[in-house]
Structures are given as C-alpha cells and as structure tokens.
Model the fold of this input.
Amino acid sequence: MPEITISMAAGRTDEQKAGMMRDITQALVKNLGVDAEAVVIQINEAPLHHKMKGGKTYAERSPAAKSK
Done:
C-alpha cells in the first residue's frame, strides 16, 4: 500500500488539494500498478508564519506582506 505524505504551506483551497491528491493517486495507479483503494495520501499544512525560506516566513514573503 503506497502511502504519500505531503508537507506544504497553508493557503490552498480544499478543491485544489483534492485535485492534487486525485492526480497523485492516478499516477501511482498508472506507474506502480496498484489499486486506487490501496493509495493513502495525507497533507500536513503549516501556517504561513510557521514555515520559512531564505530567512523570511512565508507570511513575510506573501504578496500582501510586500505591499505594506
């Protein structure tokens, strides 16, 4: 049973996340020959102020923060 964990910054819609998980499921079905029912996908989201890149939190890097 393939199990995929995705870590990402918060902010995407439920529809975007569901679409991504469906696409990943289909990629595993196609490339690994597993049944879709065997695929488990979990998303771990971090609030924008709990994730940092280049010394700035994602909240600080956001377009809204740059316009202030």
Summary: The chain has a mean pLDDT of 94. The CA atoms of residues 16 and 61 lie 21 Å apart. Strands lie at 3-9, 40-46, 52-53, 56-57.
